[in-house]
Amino acid sequence: MVDLDEFRKSLSRAVVRHIGAPGEVEDLRRLTGGATKTTWTFSAKVGGETLRLVMQQSSPREVKGGDPLGALPRLVGADDAAIMIAAARAGVPAPRVRAILAPDDGIGRGYIMDFVPGETIARRILREPSHAALRSKFAGQCGAILGKLHAMPRERLPFLVPFGAAAQVELYERVYRSYDLPQPALDLGFRWAAAHVPSARRTTVVHGDFRMGNLICGPEKIAAVIDWEIGHLGDPMEDLGWLCVKTWRFGGKSPVGGLGRREDLFAAYEAATGLRVDPAAVRFWEAFGSVKWAVMCMMKGLSHLRGAERSLEQLAIGRRMEEPIHDFLQLLAGED
Amino acid sequence: MPMSLPPAPDMLAVIREFLETAILPGLKDDKWFNVKIATNMLATVERELRLGAAADAAEAERLTALTGTAGSLEELNRLLALRIRDGSADIDDPALLDHLRRSVADALRINNPQWLTR
């Protein structure tokens, strides 16, 4: 474990260096933490102001040569910050990046951004009276934001890798098979997906994890899109489908994040882009999204076997694998 | 398994209740979060100990009928997975889909029973 006092001193020095003096750090809290990603919140005195800040530390996934996990997109440090900076420039609500950590800051790879007030806990966004106004506009705001996100200029983001539907089906199946723990329902999912890969009409920047939980919500507006670390180039319909995956509805009845209609999402997206949504492709990404999430659960649940940190959260997510498989089989049966 | 008493699920339940009532209220942030997860996982293992054997037996019986082969649960699942992969099992086969749905439902009754009622 890190020595918290030492860490606070290093963080304070980084604040002074990148943002401004006196840089005194207060209310340092570790929100979530894993071996490869840790989020901290803190306050820092800069000039006459007290800034509320968030630090994201991350490191590359450590895998052996030939391990298919190594081929999954993952942005760390400066790249993760760069895609958020580009997003903000394109009009996508994203936290303002204040500093990109340098190696000699001594606190790992990562960046410091503004704390964005709001709610990310789906249960509250779906049910609390405080977010009633947002709920009626949520699907439309998602459509408008995704329209802007998919117009982000790729030239400025040379580190993004292409990761379209066929590549994803192939790679996630390879990841699944690498465990050699056969789950017939997953084989069925991959056979279905391979037979239904849509042909993308265009290739754009794709967020890759655009969903309830990664959207900081104010009472009326989506205030920021976070967690850009699996951003890539691909089929923009992926982001629309992933947003509707049952897992990300958190018990809500409506498809878009549990509280919005597909029609509103599509209409706003079309208004923002001038392009038609391909509903069949969105459906593919939604169904395949459940297969993919099942494999992600497997990866997390078994990460300790590959020498990763022994994390309670990862184990617990592993036991969620059947949830998306159940949803996928329901979708196949036309029950949603 | 030896007939040791008290039964393992009861031990897990008492551990879980202690963590929930005596430990969790005094924690915050990531420590609260991780102990909360631990209590949920203890509940999962409790359910697995109570329901797992019957679910395994039912799954093995269905797999034997579906594949026409006898074997361990692991062997039969491997065989079925390979047949789906190589195309010799039809992914539209109602008997196959029915089997998978039953197996997934049994797993959810252990891992997250609420998922079945949403």
Question: Assembly type of the shown chains?
Answer: heterodimer
Q: What is the succession of H and E elements of chain A?
A: HEEEHEEHHHHEEEEHHHHH
How many helical elements of chain B?
4
Largest sheet: number of strands, sense, barrel closure of chain A: 5 strands, antiparallel
Structural class of chain B: mainly alpha
What share of residues of chain A is helical? Answer: 40-55%
The radius of gyration over CA of chain B amounts to: 19 Å
State the shape of chain A: globular
* Biggest chain contact: A-B, 29 and 32 residues
N to C succession of SSEs of chain B: HHHH
**Beta strands of chain A, count:** 9
Q: Approximately what portion of the residues of chain A adopt beta-strand conformation?
A: 15-25%
Numbering strands along the chain, what is their spatial order in the largest sheet of chain A?
Answer: 1-2-3-5-4
DSSP strand content of chain B: under 5%
The profile of the biggest β sheet of chain B is:
none
Number of alpha- plus pi-helical segments of chain A: 11
Intertermini distance of chain B: 36 Å
Mean pLDDT of chain B: 96
